[in-house]
Design a protein that fits this description.
Helices cover 76% and strands 0% of the residues. It is mostly helical and 257 residues long. The protein has one domain. The mean pLDDT is 82.
Length: 257
């Protein structure tokens, strides 16, 4: 859960070119937001567990479920629940906008480095946005959402998408946190011990998130099928990523010659 809670800081780096002092601004944003995010998740999860108890938790809408359990279905709850749902919808729209902005810029920058076809780097003449990358990523997201819903219920589909995302984050963060500990000697020697200790804690947390993702926390049609889906998504996506990377390296080397 900690990987999912604290993920997203890298999106600030994607927009670093629009900051006056990117290194300082990004560092300040992490220092200010990390404690707030941790507190929000700790208090929010504690509230859900307090009011829901041993009952099944709706992973799609745990906050409205908790409010209904805490306030009841009449009086204040009848007004608070719709307001809360409206806030959640607004938050989902804002988060989707942020995620799509970041995701569509990654193929664009990979195209600049000749790791993917230059088609992804084409900029709209008026809006100056990576229009081809936006179209590609939007189609890919829609396809993944549709595939996740085939033959399963809505909570399983939601959990499958969430866990698949967390697994990919965990793999990337494990590589990132491993650098201060297992990186080249020159890098390790220049870093303070407190940073290595923090990296070790992050590496452990990411590894835990990676391995528990195959265990569903909701009722699923088949536990084995669920684990196979998660594993297949991770393996196939990484194979495709490696193929794209190696193809891009070959194209870049051919252009140098």
């Amino acid at each position: 859960m900690c990987v999912g809670a604290l993920s997203g800081f890298e999106y600030v780096a994607i927009l670093a070119g629009e900051c006056k002092a990117a290194s300082r601004t990004i560092g300040q944003s992490v220092l200010l937001s990390a404690p707030v995010i941790c507190l929000m998740f700790i208090l929010g999860t504690s509230s859900v567990l307090t009011f829901i108890g041993g009952q099944p938790i709706n992973v799609i809408g745990p906050i409205p479920q908790t409010m209904r359990a805490a306030l009841g279905s009449t009086g204040l709850a009848s007004a608070a629940a719709p307001f809360t749902i409206a806030l959640l919808i607004a938050r989902a729209i804002a988060a989707s906008s942020l995620l799509l902005t970041g995701l569509t810029r990654l193929p664009m920058t990979a195209g600049w480095d000749h790791l993917v076809p230059q088609w992804f780097s084409r900029i709209h003449p008026r809006w100056r946005t990576p229009v081809n990358s936006i179209v590609f990523m939007t189609a890919l997201v829609i396809a993944i959402i549709i595939l996740s819903m085939l033959g399963v219920k809505e909570q399983e589909a939601s959990q499958l998408l969430t866990n698949a995302s967390v697994v990919h984050y965990a793999i990337a963060y494990m590589a990132l946190f491993a650098l201060p500990i297992f990186g080249v000697r020159r890098l390790r020697g220049a870093l303070p011990m407190w940073l290595k200790a923090v990296a070790g804690a992050g590496l452990f947390a990411s590894a835990v998130s990676l391995f528990i993702a195959v265990y569903p926390i909701v009722d699923v049609v088949s536990r084995t099928g669920y684990a196979v889906k998660i594993t297949a998504v991770v393996v196939v996506s990484n194979i495709v990523g490696l193929a794209v990377y190696w193809g891009g390296k070959r194209r870049a080397a051919a252009q140098v010659r």
